[in-house]
Amino acid sequence: DHLLARIERLDGDLNSLITVTSDQARTAADAADAARSRGETGPLTGLPLAIKDLFCTEGVRTTAGSRMLGDFVAPYDATVVAKLKASGTVSLGKANMDEFAMGSSNENSHFGAVKNPWDQNAVPGGSSGGSAAAVAAGLVPAAMGTDTGGSIRQPAAFCGITGLKPTYGRVSRYGIIAYASSLDQAGPMARTAEDCALLLNAIAGHDPRDSTSVSRGVPNYTEELAAPLAGLKIGLPREYFGDGLDPAVEAATRDAIKVFESLGASVREVSLPHTHYAIPAYYVIAPAEASSNLSRYDGVRFGHRCEAPSDLIDLYKRSRAEGFGEEVKRRILIGTHTLSEGFFDAYYTKAQQVRRLIRQDFLDAFEEVDVLMGPTSPTPAFDLGANKDPVSMYLQDIYTIAVNLAGIPGISVPAGFVSGRPVGLQILGTHFAEARLLNVAHQFQ
Ligand code: GLN
After folding, report:
1. CA 303 to CA 315: how far, in whole Å?
2. Residue 434, Cα to own-chain centre: how many angstroms?
3. Ligand 1 pocket, residue 103 CB under 6 Å
4. Strands in 215-313 per DSSP E
5. Cβ of residue 150 lying under 6 Å from some atom of ligand 1
6. So what's the ipTM on this one?
7. Catalytic entry in 91, 109, 127, 172
8. Which CATH number goes with the domain that contains 80?
9. Which is more confidently placed, 445 or 189?
């Protein structure tokens, strides 16, 4: 009730939630109280949270931030949602986001931009901007996000919270509205690494309904949090400290890294030589997958349908023209182009080859060091409306996108402020190194 009142009071300005599910929340809270009185209490029993509006939630509107799904009520729960419910959490609502998770500022939402709680002239980052803002504003202690090219880590950095993108396949994608299926991964956003560890315990694991989820044991992610960092080998990718990095963000990042040295870690420079190709490769692969995934919104089976179509083609055309926003249309155009005959080998096949090289860069680096560190984003949160050019917006993800192409895990932790706006330190590990990342992040906090 306290948080619902807080949402009522503050979220009119912030716009972090698209749908507030007070009734369902009260029912879930009662169930949590009942479980507690029976002594059936787990670490998440009764924990309030928000869920990015990309996760299907049974009986609740699930919009993906799009007019296309503006009235869509999901008939079933995503696996992550089902697992969170089974852990006794209480969802207070569905978090605002860039339409179909395409964006880095949360300005692409059909439901309006989200404001950064630290400075309401600033964006919260994207695409999980609503999740990050809701946690930062104290509307919920935790939220679920998804990260296809940085969408958990970058808004976590901009809002001064902690966000973890797990290894691709660690968390089921079943019931998460697909953007780019080979890159999408769900993860927790919360104040601390410890909170993220508790949430990852609840959501990780194999799911027979997602053939890309990995059948590999799930460790207890809280167990290693206290392990000392003496002897930890940290690599600083040369390419993450170059042109385009705001000097004040660099200074905050280097200050954070000194803390690890004082905890007994050693630091050396490493190179990820194909970094420069990550954004071009991503902007071939992600739109290609998106154009295929979004072909299902045809105005027939679900989603927005235009008025009085004259025939089937008119139905498709107008339903899609009306239902999708500008950035989504741009991605569909890019994707259908790069997948079309005559361009496929030049763009898509080439991008997949580059992707392999990018992955190999990381694997080579992890032969030498345990974790990589650098800034999460080259700048602190920018002003709402300030970044109008799509390519400069895409460049926001320069340090986060390669991680998704490689499938490795990454976490962003708060690392101070630049001009009153939070900045994040990104810590990367090899595949399935989540426990190590959480441990390293926890020791910093
Ligand atoms: N900003 C990137 C994009 O627009 C990444 C988004 C994401 O991770 N969902 O595609």
Report:
1. 12
2. 15
3. yes
4. 233-237, 266-270
5. yes
6. 0.98
7. 127
8. 3.90.1300.10
9. 189
